[in-house]
Design goal:
Elements: E1 19-30, E2 33-40, E3 47-48, E4 51-52, H1 60-72, E5 74-78, E6 84-92, E7 95-111, E8 123-126, H2 128-134, H3 138-146
Parallel strand pairs: 1-7
Antiparallel strand pairs: 1-2, 1-4, 2-3, 2-8, 5-7, 6-7
C-alpha cells in the first residue's frame, strides 16, 4: 500500500523533543553497480548523507531532494517511499539534540560544479558497502549496506 505524501506543517517544538530530519541517499549506477554519494559534515568532517529540517509546505521527499542540492550539488529526483530511518545526536550550541532522520533515495542525474555549500563540504562516491563503513551511525550503515536501487519505484 502506498501512502500519498502531503506537504508538511511545521510547529514550534520544545528543547527535549526528538526532532525529525529528512535525508537523501543519493545514488547512481556506474558500470552496472550502484554507487552512493557521501558528503562531509561541516563541523567534524565525518562522512554523512545530506539531511535537513522539514520545510513548511514541502513533502518529506522534496525536503530530502532540496538538502541533496544544497549540501552536495545533486541534480536529481527523490522517490516518495522512504528506505528507513536512523537516529543520532545533532550537536547544536554545544549540546546534543536527539534527531531521527528519515532516508529517501535520490537518483542523481548529475552533479553541479557550483552549489550552496560547495566551500563547506567535500563529496565523494562510494560503493554501498564502503559508504556503510565510513558513516558513524549503525542504522544508517545498515540502510547503506542493504541498499538495492532495483527496489525503488
Amino acid at each position: 500500500m502506498l501512502i500519498k505524501q502531503l506537504p508538511i506543517t511545521v510547529r514550534a517544538s520544545h528543547k527535549s523533543d526528538v526532532r525529525t530530519q529528512f535525508a537523501a541517499l543519493c545514488f547512481r549506477i556506474a558500470k552496472n553497480k550502484p554507487q552512493v554519494l557521501l558528503v562531509t559534515s561541516r563541523g567534524t568532517g565525518r562522512w554523512i548523507i545530506p539531511k535537513g529540517w522539514p520545510m513548511h509546505g514541502k513533502t518529506p521527499a522534496h525536503c530530502a531532494e532540496r538538502e541533496a542540492w544544497e549540501e552536495a550539488g545533486v541534480i536529481g529526483k527523490a522517490a516518495d517511499q522512504a528506505l528507513g530511518l536512523f537516529s543520532y545526536n545533532k550537536v547544536l550550541d554545544g549540546s546534543g539534540l536527539p534527531c531521527v532522520a528519515i532516508v529517501y533515495p535520490v537518483r542523481v542525474k548529475s552533479l553541479a560544479p557550483d552549489y550552496p555549500e560547495k566551500n563547506q563540504r567535500r563529496r565523494k562516491w562510494f560503493s554501498p558497502a564502503k559508504a556503510a563503513n565510513r558513516v558513524s551511525e549503525p542504522e544508517l550503515a545498515r540502510i547503506l549496506r542493504d541498499f538495492d536501487p532495483k527496489m525503488i519505484r
